[in-house]
Amino acid sequence: MKHRHTNLKHIAIGAIVLTSTLAFAPLAVAQTEAASTTAANPLAQADKDFVQAASMSSSTEIDAAKLATANSEDKDVKSFARHMMLDHTKLSVQLKMAAPHGVTIPMNNSDTTVLGPLRGLKGKAFDEAYISKVGVEGHKQAVAAFEKEISDGQDAKLKKAAQDALPTIKKHYQMAQDLAVKKGVSQ
């Protein structure tokens, strides 16, 4: 039991270190082309689209969660944000590990159209926008992207990564919907 506790502690510390490292990256980067490929390892368009959508989704979730820790005063919103930061950091690492050799996964390609409007908001106004745009709408789009990769993707490892991550993304979507109901945010 002590060995398992130690492993979990190391995993948590690794996620915190990775998250801390990401904190010093630019908060928002214009949309970049994901999945740069080599001639030796081209990806099908469906797989390129998935890599772009998945990496942007997680990057946006992480950066929005950082904003939430600073701009929200609500303990439930901050708790949700911390949960999103940890899970999406883990999902980003899993996506990178699933990518075929020669495929680059961008790690800092947040959607500036989502983050930009959040920056100037504080308190309840921030909470409502964050829950609606990032929590509910962001996860709704992510579920669709992961389901599309599962049905249309050509790369077996990326399809498997999408299948493995989909339950977590669906759980996040449900958590966001529940938080919206609890806080009276229209969906």
UniProtKB/TrEMBL annotation:
Residues 1-25 form the signal peptide. Pfam families: DUF4142. InterPro entries: DUF4142, Ferritin-like. Keywords: Plasmid, Signal. It comes from the Bacteria. Residues 46-179 form the DUF4142 domain. The keyword Signal applies. This is DUF4142 domain-containing protein. It comes from Paraburkholderia largidicola.
